[in-house]
Specification:
- The chain is of the alpha+beta class and 405 residues long.
- It is built from 15 helices and 13 strands.
- It has helices at 19-23, 26-35, 54-61, 97-106, 111-130, 140-158, 166-173, 175-178, 189-212, 217-226, 232-263, 265-273, 277-288, 320-323, 358-375, and strands at residues 11-12, 38-42, 46-51, 67-68, 138-139, 295-299, 303-305, 308-310, 315-318, 380-381, 388-392, 395-400, 402-404.
- The strands form four sheets. A six-stranded mixed sheet has the order 1-2-3-9-6-4, sandwiched between helices. A three-stranded antiparallel sheet has the order 5-13-10.
- The radius of gyration is 21 Å and the shape is globular.
- The structure holds protoporphyrin IX containing FE.
- Residues 61, 69, 90-91, 98, 102, 153, 241-242, 245-246, 249-250, 253, 286, 290-292, 295, 347-349, 353, 355-357, 360-361 line the site of protoporphyrin IX containing FE.
């Protein structure tokens, strides 16, 4: 057991990494909501906690001093979530280091920058929808969600040209290998090779970005590196964080948005009548299909959460996607409704680490929804094919969304 005092703790047998939870998270929701906060033993020896109620997740995410984001390097199990090869990144650090890293790219996410990206986004949405043909099946992810995210975030926002992007996609694909690791296992070779390739590539690109005076995010990172604000290691990790944080999540939300638009034609009609409703529609998509399902924190003190104490040192699994269905917050939580008052959810997190890309996402998604609803009133689910989900311990999203217009 870890150094936390656990003698009297009733442990649940819940394991967020188990196949049953990944395959059917909904079947665990009631149990998690009723028992939250609960305790579990991870890796056979690490006393850990989970929180699943909305207010409890808000409490944990809202207090970085009591719930740190710094992953203890020697804690068994951490190798499964060390996507950035042990390097410092903003999402795995606390202030002041977190704030220093976030400041480097913050301006790229400002309202002015997001507005600049909006025009480009309109163009990309138009081009992608131009390719759809009546009665020809297409995939909401492969044909729309993913290319939209890649073009807006990768080509334009980050500034990585299409011919080089495979380096990051190949690296990202190796993350799935990490979640199979047992304590003491070495990192998979494919992951290490992918990291090395990405690192070598970025060193070169960042050196060029510094020279050619371009104004994308890469050049911002390059100048922070030149001025000594960021170390080389931090610079590499930052690019990987922005890529992995943004492209898969926005792709997933695009695919999900089209799924719900096709599934609820009466809501699509309401959006055609009043395009302002697209925002509420998208918030409900984020709530129900949150691609990030859990985030981790580490208790720095004994802390009362709900009716239990989470002991100092415990890893805390904060179950965002369960909290998003908490019946104390949402009336009929499993229903898709664009009329929820307030439209609160935890899909972008809360507190210090609240998603830096949330404004960009909230700019992109309604554009897709409005254009799709306007141009293709006949959009429907393609019942001849099954939708497919892709899950990892921390994420869950639709991988194939069969549709027809
Ligand atoms: C639907 C789209 C997205 C979802 C659901 C999402 C979700 C999240 C969540 C839940 C967090 C909080 C993590 C934590 O508390 O530990 C987060 C943080 C973050 N997100 Fe996003 N994200 C999305 C889009 C983006 C985009 C477009 C980018 C960048 C281009 C991005 C970059 C980041 C970064 C860098 C952080 C860390 C912020 C910090 O630690 O201060 N995300 N995101």
């Amino acid at each position: 057991m870890s150094d936390t005092s656990t003698a009297q703790i009733p442990f649940s047998d819940f394991d967020p990494f188990c196949d049953e939870f990944r395959d059917s998270p909904e079947s665990f929701h009631d149990q998690l909501l009723h028992s939250s906060p609960g305790y579990m033993v991870m890796e056979g020896e690490v006393a850990s906690a989970y929180v699943a109620k909305f207010d409890q997740c808000m409490q944990v995410l809202g207090n970085w001093e009591l719930f740190s984001s710094v992953k203890p390097p020697n804690l068994p199990g951490m190798q499964r979530v060390d996507f950035f090869n042990g390097m410092p990144v903003m999402n795995y650090s606390d202030p002041p280091q977190h704030d220093r890293l976030r400041r480097v790219v913050n301006v790229a996410f400002s309202p002015g920058r997001v507005r600049q990206l909006a025009e480009y986004t309109d163009k990309v949405v138009d081009e992608l929808l131009d390719r759809l043909e009546p009665n020809k099946p297409f995939c909401g992810m492969g044909d729309v969600g993913r290319p939209l995210a890649v073009k807006v975030l990768f080509d334009e926002f980050l500034g990585i040209p299409p011919e080089d992007q495979h380096i990051f996609f190949e690296f990202g694909a190796t993350f799935l290998l990490l979640d199979k690791l047992k304590p003491g296992d070495p990192k998979p070779q494919a992951y290490l090779d992918g990291w090395k390739r990405g690192e070598a590539y970025l060193r070169q690109v960042l050196a060029d970005a510094g020279k050619n005076g371009s104004e994308n995010v890469l050049s911002m990172i390059a100048s922070a590196s030149e001025s000594g604000t960021m170390s080389d290691a931090e610079m590499m990790a930052m690019v990987c964080v922005l890529f992995t944080g943004g492209v898969p999540t926005v792709s997933a939300m695009g695919a999900s948005a089209l799924h719900y638009l096709a599934r609820y034609p009466e809501i699509a009609e309401r959006i055609r009548q009043d395009e302002n409703l697209a925002k509420a529609f998208c918030e409900e998509v984020y709530r129900l299909d949150s691609p990030v399902t859990l985030v981790m924190r580490f208790a720095t003190e004994d802390v009362q959460v709900g009716d239990r104490v989470i002991a100092r040192g415990m890893p805390v699994y904060t179950m965002i996607s369960v909290a998003n269905r908490d019946p104390d917050i949402y009336d009929k939580p499993l229903e898709f409704s664009i009329d929820r008052p307030g439209m609160r959810h935890l899909s972008f997190g809360n507190g210090t680490h609240v998603c830096i890309g949330n404004a960009i996402t909230r700019m992109i998604m309604p554009k897709l929804v409005v254009q799709m609803a306007r141009r293709f009133p006949a959009l429907r689910l393609d019942d001849s094919r099954q939708g497919v989900w892709e899950t990892s311990p921390r994420s869950r999203h639709r991988k194939e969304v069969p549709l027809v217009v």
